[in-house]
Amino acid sequence: MHSLDDLLRVQLDEMSKNGLRRQLRRLDAAGPCRLTIQGRTFLNFSSNDYLGLSRHPTVLRASSEAIEQWGSGSRASRLVCGSLGIHHELEETLANWKQTEAALLFNSGFSAAIGVIPALAGPADLILADRLVHACCLDGARLSRAQLRVFRHNDLDHLELLLQRARKNHLEGQSARKIWILAESVYSMDGDQAPLQGLVELKERFGAWLILDEAHATGLFGAQRTGLAESEGVSGRVEVHLGTLGKALGSSGGYVCGSRTLIDFLVHRARSLIYSTASPPSTLAAALAAIQIVRSEEGTSLSAQAWARARQLNGVLSLTTLLHNGPTSAILPKMVGENQAALDLSARLFDRGIFVPAIRYPTVPVGEARLRFTVSAAHSEEDIDFVRQVLAETT
After folding, report:
1. Fewer CB in a 10 Å sphere around the end CB: N or C, the chain?
2. What are phi and psi of 36, to 5 degrees?
3. How far apart are CA 289 and CA 59, in angstroms?
C-alpha cells in the first residue's frame, strides 16, 4: 500500500510537468505598489489595493486604535458574544453607502459567497452562473445543491435561452422554485464589465433574482464609488450585493448588502457566519476609515489617479493585448496562452524588478494563461514607463 505522501507526490510531479506547480512566496514587506523579497524591492503590479489605502496613515491609525479599544480579536462568533459595536457600526455604514436597508459582515468575500448562496438557494432551485464568475460563487452554488447551469461569459442571448427553458419547464410543471443569476460586475481575471443593464432587464422579465459580486468595482465606479451597479443606475434593482473589504478598501473581510428581511434571514441560515469567530476589530476599523476616505474628495482624487494609471498601462499593453478601446477596470491582463510561456515572461519581468505572477489553470481556462497586471493610485507615471521599457526589451 502506498503512503499518502507517495500518492500526493505523483500528483505534484504531474502539476510540475504541466507548468501548474505553485508555491507560497514569502514577502518581507508589502504595499500597494512596492514589495520586498529577500531584501530586494520590486514594483508590484499584482495587488488589488486599487486606491492604495492599505498603507494610508488614517487607515493604519484607525486599525491600531481599535486594538487598544476592543482587543486583538472578537473572541466568539457573532451569535455568541462576538458581535461588537464596531461590527454594527460598519454594517450600518456599508448599508448607508450602498443605499440598502441593511448589511452583514463575513470574514472574507469567499466566506460571504459560500454562506449567502446556499442560504438562499436549495435543491429545488435553479442557479444560472456566468462562466467566468469567481470560484467562491461557483462553490456556493454547488454547496446549495441547486441545479447549476453556466451561461457563456457576458452572453445575454445564451442567458435568455436558459431562462426561456426554465419558463417552459415551469409551464410543464417541472420548474425550479426560484431562479438565481450569479455575476460579477467587474470580472477578476479579464477585467471586463458585466452588461448590467441587460442582466437586470432579463432577470426582471423572467422573474429571477440577481446576486452581484462587486469585489473589483468598489472604489472605482459611481459617484459614491460603491460599484458598477451604481454607475449603471441599477443598484436598487439588484437583490443581493456581495462585496469585499480586502481590495480597494485595503482591509480584510466580506459583506452582503440588501433588504432588512434578507439580512435577518441570513443571520439564521448563513453557516459561514453562524459558525465562524467574528472578524477582528482592527480590520473593521480599517475598513470604516477607508470608506470615509473613498466617500471624500480624497477618494475622488485617488479613484481618478487609479484610472489615469490604468489608461497609461493600457497604452503600454495594447500593442500586444488589443485593449484598443481603453481600460474597463484597474485589471489589465496580458494574454500569453501556454503555462510555461506565462511563467517565463513573469520570470523575465521578475529579473528586472517587476512582480507580476503568471495566472494559470484552474484560475483561468486551459490555454488562457496570462500576466494579470493591476494598477493602484499609488503607482506613478514613472512606474508605468518602466514597465513599457522592460516589456520592449523582454518580449
Report:
1. N
2. -125, 130
3. 5
Catalytic residue among 47, 48, 107, 154: 48
Q: Is 184 among the residues known to form the active site?
A: yes
The domain spans of the chain are: 22-50+297-394, 57-294
Q: What per-residue confidence (pLDDT) applies to 71? A: 96
pLDDT tens by residue, 76-99? 999 999 999 999 999 999 999 999
pLDDT at residue 320 greater than cutoff 60: no
Residue 247 designated active-site: yes
Q: Give the Cα separation of 311 and 151 in Å (integer).
A: 30
Q: Is 296 a catalytic residue?
A: no
**Window from 37-41, 218-222, 318-322 with minimum mean pLDDT:** 318-322
Cβ atoms 137, 213 nearer than 8 A: yes
- At the fourth CATH level, the homologous superfamily of domain 22-50+297-394 is Aspartate Aminotransferase, domain 1 (3.90.1150.10)
pLDDT tens figures, 206-232: 999 999 999 999 999 999 999 999 999
The active-site residue out of 49, 91, 130, 184 is 184
Catalytic-role residue among 216, 241, 334, 379 = 216
The active-site residue, picked from 203, 247, 334, 379, is 247
Helix (H, G, I), strand (E, B) or coil at 47: coil
Rounded CA-CA distance 344/356 in Å is 11
* Residue from 44, 108, 144, 188 carrying the catalytic annotation: 188
Domain topology for 57-294: Aspartate Aminotransferase; domain 2 (3.40.640)
Asked if residue 323 has pLDDT above 60, the reply is: no
Q: DSSP secondary-structure letter at 251?
A: S
Catalytic residue among 98, 134, 203, 241: 134
179 phi, psi to nearest 5 deg: -120, 125
Helix ranges (H only) for 295-395 are 297-321, 339-351, 381-394
Q: Known catalytic residue: 134? A: yes
